[in-house]
Design brief:
Blueprint lengths: L2 H25 L4 H9 L9 H14 L6 H14 L13 H5 L8 H12 L15 H20 L3 H33 L3 H31 L1
Length: 227
């Protein structure tokens, strides 16, 4: 396999791991298994994105200061940040695209219908175990990771046309969905979070989505030059 394919495969594997990591952090509270992974994890120092670097430093600092109540603290903050107290639509950083793209901050709105159609067009159905709306950030991040997984499979057989088609789908989804509302979400996360952990997650998410868009643009630009 050429060095070009090996390099692209390495990039895709890193992207898939990061999207799955972020998706898990938004899906539910940190449990002991995940906390152990976070403690053992090597945190990036210089990614080239100041926002992401600041987030990783903050998360590393928090993880280095764990104590017997860390899981409880994180569970409380998860509920505070993402669930709120239910008084109104401004009570938390609700992790749904619909809330941030509809005038009245309504759930199950147009954005949910749009992403559901995109999932189905790509042969992906929500499992019965998932009870939240399809426009939840965890599901949108997981969708990108599934497309990357398919991209890796196609890279193994060197199906360049389908590889670049999937990469364009990922870029479009970033532009039309994740990058269209997550910047608003992360601002609210920093407003409601009481732990540095979820403040850090906001920075990492915002920075990484920006970096990933640049990665996709660079790869697709090379593809155009070779056409």
């Amino acid at each position: 396999m050429s060095e070009y394919y090996i390099e692209i495969i390495d990039v895709m594997q890193g992207r898939m791991a990061t999207y799955r990591f972020l998706s898990r952090l938004y899906r539910k509270e940190v449990d002991q298994e995940l906390l152990d992974q976070l403690i053992a994890m090597r945190y990036p120092v210089k990614s080239g994105n100041a926002e992401m670097d600041a987030g990783y430093r903050m998360m590393h600092g928090y993880i280095c200061s764990t104590w017997e109540r860390t899981l409880t603290d994180l569970a409380i903050d998860f509920a505070r940040v993402f669930l709120g107290h239910g008084i109104n639509a401004h009570s938390a950083a609700y992790p749904f695209e619909s809330v941030h793209t509809s005038a009245k901050r309504l759930l199950m709105n147009d954005a949910r219908d749009e992403v559901l159609a995109i999932y189905r067009a790509n042969g992906i159905e929500k499992t019965n175990a998932w009870r939240e709306g399809e426009d939840h950030i965890a599901l949108e991040l997981e969708f990108i990771s599934l497309l990357i997984e398919r991209t890796l499979e196609l890279l193994q057989v060197k199906d360049e046309e389908q590889v670049f088609s999937l990469l364009r789908t990922q870029l479009n989804f970033l532009d039309n969905h994740l990058l269209n509302w997550v910047p608003m979400l992360v601002i609210e996360m920093q407003k409601f979070a009481k732990t540095d952990f979820y403040r850090a997650l906001a920075l990492i998410t915002s920075g990484y989505l920006t970096v990933d868009r640049e990665i996709l643009e660079d790869i697709l630009a090379v593809a155009k030059l070779e056409d």
